[in-house]
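All the exercises in this workshop are built on plain-text protein records. Sequence and backbone structure share a record, each on its own labelled line. The question running through the whole workshop is how a given chain folds. The record below serves as our worked example for the rest of this section.
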Amino acid sequence: MSTLKVLLMLFCFSLSVQTYAAKEKEEIPKEDKWGKTNDRSDNSPGLFKDDSSVYVYSEKELDNLTIGITDMMGNVYHYEVTTVPARTYYAVSIESLPAGAYYLSIYQGSNYVIGLFNIN
C-alpha cells in the first residue's frame, strides 16, 4: 500500500474519531455573568451534556466552585462545592433524574453560569 493511501486512511479515521467525540457531549446553552480577564476574553466555564452526565469545563482551575442542579419548580437534585481542575471535564451524573427540564448552576463568588438542559 502506498504511503499516500495510508496517510489518507489515517486522516479519514482521525476525522471520524473527532466527529464522534464532538457529538458525544453537546454544549448546554447558558447565561453568564463571569468576570473578564485583563485581555477581555471570555473565561466563563463551558457546560456540556451527554446521556449520563453534565460537565463543567474550564481552561483554568476553578476553586470553591458551587455546582447545583434544580428542576423548574426549584427542587434541588444536586449540590456540591468542589474544585474543577484546569482543562478537565468535571462530570456530574444525571442518570437518576426523571425526564424533564433542569437548570445547571455554577457559582464562584459573584461569578455565575446558568444552563438549561432537558432529559427525555
